[in-house]
Amino acid sequence: MHAVNDTIFALSSGGLPAGVAVVRISGPASFDAIASLAGPVPVARQAALRTIRTRNGLKIDQGLVLAFPAPASFTGEDCVEIHVHGGKAVVTTLLQELSTFEACRLAEHGEFSRRALENGKMDLVEVEGLADLIAAETEMQRRLAVEHADGGLSRLYDGWADRLTRARALIEAELDFADEDDVPGSVSDMVWADMNGLQSEISAHLADADFGEIIRDGLKVVIAGAPNAGKSSLMNVLARREVAIVTDIAGTTRDVLHVDLNIEGYAVKLYDTAGLRETDEVIEREGIRRALKTAADADIILSLAEIGTEAQTEFADFSGEVIRIGTKLDIHMVPNLGYDLCVSSATGAGLAELHERLVRDLQARSASLSLALPSRLRHRTLLSDSLEALSRAVDALTSGLDIRAEYLRQAAHSLGRITGRVDVEDLLDVIFSEFCIGK
Question: For 154-183, what is each residue's pLDDT tens digit?
């Protein structure tokens, strides 16, 4: 078990070799370590060019050193960044030298961010946003992650938590201090009108969780249809590379194939599936089972059928959008009715229309939405718990104020768990500050 006051260090830039490597140090021994390796600690937040040496005087490299005194640092502790050339030998030697200092050790995964959380520099949503920002591959993922990392979502939840705390404070004041002149005689109407409004706000926000998860995890688009309908060919042309094997033999695709696309800044996960038909062949039947399972979890199904045959419109356990696509337009020059659009993977005909259809779907899902969206199952679960408790408080018209106040406490507790802030004494703080109890 590592001590909480250990000084930690790690390579915090990208993989090696690289043009520049950044080694970060955080903890009480940070400044002592850098003073030993590179001379006097630089002026706070100003880069200084230094020669970095081992404690035996062996030169490791020449680079920039920056010092960030606590609490104005990423972790809230004394921090140092050393910018050196990004060679593997340079970085390895520097890390090995840092490990020789007492109570200095290599950081564990995410330990810098964990210390930032523990020292109040970030909350849980901001930490998750930072992780998503590092992993972001599309523009919309970047924008969503920046909103979370900058505290946009946290400010929304903190505002809701403050309203719940104020409501509880007013109720507690009415219950316990009704004889005080500073306490209004009845606050119930005001409290429950606000709680009704808050209930609607959380409910609407929770309804946007699907789109938040789509931005973060990708829109799940499944290509489904009968064998030889052109599913694998469409997969390859949309991916712009040979992902799936294409033959004239029915049942070639046996497993679910997946490729990630970037469509107008949105992440799209495209799945090719086994052809749907009745069969006694064991392996093909397993492929079909997996295909149907994947389709049930999709956001959109592209139901393919060769022009002249009927595209499937119903899929078990799926209630989302099905786009009926007629294929092999290069062979069937006159498209039959009954499709939403027709395409040819061979000539590219109709693919621009399919692309535009997917873009319109994504834009429609995001219409009028800010990016202060819940994007994780954890967010959705705790928001649902909070909404359930709040609904109980609002609907319990025949219950006593003490019971309804307890429901409000549960609602606030669930909100606090999203950001990692759970109130302990702030309820009494509100009562004393607003009602001057005990004047």
Answer: 999 999 999 999 998 888 777 766 555 554
- DSSP, collapsed to helix, strand or coil, labels residue 266 as strand
Phi-psi region of 436 (alpha: psi -120 to 50; beta: other; left: phi over 0): left
CB 270 within 8 A of CB 262: no
Q: Please name the residues in contact with 162: beta carbons below 8 A apart, sequence gap of 6 or more.
A: none
Q: In angstroms, rounded to a whole number, what is the distance separating the alpha carbons of residues 343 and 331?
A: 11
> What distance lies between CA 66 and its chain's CA centroid?
31
Ordered domains of the chain (ranges, CATH): 7-116 (3.30.1360.120), 152-208+380-435 (1.20.120.430), 215-366 (3.40.50.300)
Dist. CA 99–CA 8, nearest whole Å = 9
Could you tell me if 141 and 216 are in contact, meaning their C-beta atoms sit under 8 angstroms apart? yes
Q: Rounded to whole angstroms, how far apart are CA atoms 162 and 184?
A: 20
Q: Are 201 and 160 in contact (CB under 8 A)?
A: yes
Contact of 373 with 211, CB cutoff 8 Å:
yes
Quick: pLDDT tens for 295-350. Answer: 999 999 999 999 989 999 999 889 889 999 999 998 887 666 789 999 999 999 99
Q: What's the CA gap between 75 and 112, in Å, rounded?
A: 6
As beta bridge partners, residue 106 has 9
Q: Are β-strands 79-86 and 59-68 bridged in parallel, bridged antiparallel, or unpaired? A: antiparallel
Q: How far apart are alpha carbons 384 and 89 in whole angstroms? A: 51
Please identify which residue in the block is written with the tokens 């930072």: 130
Q: How many residues does the chain have?
A: 439
Q: Rounded to an integer, what distance in angstroms lies between the CA atom of residue 159 and that of residue 139?
A: 28
Type of residue found at 235? M
Residues of the chain predicted below pLDDT 70: 1-4, 176-187, 243-254, 334-336, 367-369, 422-439
Two tokens, residue 146:
């920046």
Write phi, then psi, for 186 (nearest 5 degrees): -145, 125
CA dihedral (198, 199, 204, 208) positive or negative: positive
| Rounded percentage of the chain residues whose pLDDT exceeds 90 | 54
